[in-house]
Structure prediction request, 223 residues.
Amino acid sequence: EADIYQTPRYLVIGTGKKITLECSQTMGHDKMYWYQQDPGMELHLIHYSYGVNSTEKGDLSSESTVSRIRTEHFPLTLESARPSHTSQYLCASSEWGQGNYNEQFFGPGTRLTVL
Amino acid sequence: DAKTTQPTSMDCAEGRAANLPCNHSTISGNEYVYWYRQIHSQGPQYIIHGLKNNETNEMASLIITEDRKSSTLILPHATLRDTAVYYCIVSGTYKYIFGTGTRLKVLA
Prediction:
């Protein structure tokens, strides 16, 4: 059973607010990821981290930022939310396995609505 | 762009086997094939993975062709709860590239 948590599950907020989406995992995984998914569409990688103090941008450009100060915690921040940020945000983690095996474990997601 | 091609949607009768195909003609020798599913926009759930050999677990079977250019996920006895979007992912690194997946609808 994967132990990866996201809070809040749902967030409705006004334009211009600063928000932080939380993601935590208790599996000790080095690698963590943030994906963005619009309704009915595929997941797009927006940020990832190899480990503590490591963060990289993903394939889809995003105005959000991330930090990785602790292994288990990978928060995503939007300094000034806009309606275009309305989407679902999914967090995942993985541990490099034998060979190139890399099973990712996903959290339940945060559904963000910016009014 | 995703490295895989899947049909957009499929229907399957409850209790019958659901066979979901995936083409990955550009797969490299060190890349795994992973299958995930997503129910009602929840976080994707891991189903199974394979490298060269066919694989089976409590959820499904994965059949990979000898040339590794395509694979089939088999749900042996589909139930209504298997209705979901199924993603086939090919990856040899930390990164997954998701395609649009196959929307499987299991019919009563």
Strands of chain B lie at 9-13, 18-23, 32-38, 45-50, 55-56, 61-64, 70-75, 84-91, 102-107. Chain B is about 0% helix and 45% strand. Chain B has a mean pLDDT of 93.
